[in-house]
């Protein structure tokens, strides 16, 4: 298994292991990191990172946005926040979504930066909620 | 000469002080271990971030300075300096806070002598109290410290966002972070780290030769840079906060160790004095009795 994947959040390193492939949620669509790929720097949206050994998914992590640095032998994910899928809580995500939507309703319509940031945050939390609810059935 | 009762009182007093300083030392020692492991855990992120920043900065080096984000290139002016000053919320940590304040004061004076405008953003109560007294007009906002608890990333995020918003509003041109770098439990060094414009460390690992594969960027490098820079700023502040937290515990541990040792010495001295006084009293009484008996 020649690809070394690291998932690090500002507080700690969550994953450092060898896998065959990792699918990461890029801003413009999911991208698979495989051995011997050309170096790529990628911005991430909130979504699920899936780690593959052979054809099987061995682990899924939810990342709340961040960046990824991919190379021939490594894939480093700098996550704003990261959690093992099984540890996600749908209720907690729902609460946060509600808070964000209240803020969304209150902001000035011409405050473009806040708009942008909030919409990205809301998308991320929505993805988390979806992952948490979907994850329960998997 | 103090009476025996007074001396006994003082010995008990110093003993209970020693108990407190000793306990504080123990607490600081265990908190120090915690803070150190937290700082270690945060290192991989900062390192990976540094690597990415170096790659990106190298990729955008050719472009025009005015098109680069302000966080990387500065505003092009050098008039208003913002100093972010990290201190602790609690005292009893030896020279920990005084060091930082001294370093800050020096920098403020140098900048003001050069005719620059200085603004202050103190983080942590101790430094904020002193600086607000000395330079009440310069303080922009006081940010509460961590109050001895674990440092959370949200604090760094808040300070980072504050700096970015001031920079975007054109209120500041440059920004410097002053904090204590943790060397070991005995020593911390006051560091002045320029945050804006960003000084990207020349990374030797970045292979700039032509046959190294070129990085692809998604989205394009300008957008990526614009998003990565504020994050990088927060990460730098975060690691400074962690260093400062570890330094605070280290300084407190050393200070309390010294205090306990001083208290032990004081107790020895007082006990000796107490014993001598007691002996002198006994001798006196004996002399009185004997001379009284002789007189009869």
Instruction: Tell me the domain tally of chain A.
Output: 2
The structure class of chain B reads: alpha/beta
Radius of gyration of chain B in whole Å, from Cα? Answer: 28 Å
> What is the CATH topology assignment of the largest domain in chain A?
ATP Synthase, domain 1
Distance between the termini of chain A: 25 Å
Give the CATH superfamily of the largest domain in chain B: ATP synthase, F1 complex, gamma subunit
Describe this structure in words.
Chain A: Belongs to the ATPase epsilon chain family. Chain A: Produces ATP from ADP in the presence of a proton gradient across the membrane. The complex is a heterodimer of chains A (138) and B (296). Chain A has helices spanning 90-106, 112-137, and strands at 3-8, 13-19, 21-26, 29-33, 40-53, 56-70, 74-79, 82-84. Chain A has 138 residues and is α+β, with helices and mostly antiparallel strands. Chain A folds into two domains: 3-85, F0F1 ATP synthase delta/epsilon subunit, N-terminal (ATP Synthase, domain 1); 88-137. Chain B has two domains: 4-23 and 257-289, Orthogonal Bundle (Helix Hairpins), CATH 1.10.287; 27-203 and 214-255, Pyruvate Kinase, Chain: A, domain 1 (3-Layer(aba) Sandwich). Chain B contains six helices and five strands; from the N terminus they run H-H-E-H-E-H-H-E-E-E-H. Chain B has helices spanning 4-59, 70-73, 96-113, 125-134, 153-168, 221-295; strands spanning 80-86, 117-123, 174-184, 187-196, 216-218. The A-B interface holds A 6, 8-13, 26-28, 31, 38-43, 67, 69, 72, 76, 78, 80 and B 38, 41-42, 44-45, 48-49, 51-52, 55-56, 153, 156, 213-219, 221, 223-224, 227-228, 231, 234-235, 238. Strand 5 of chain A pairs parallel with strand 5 of chain B.
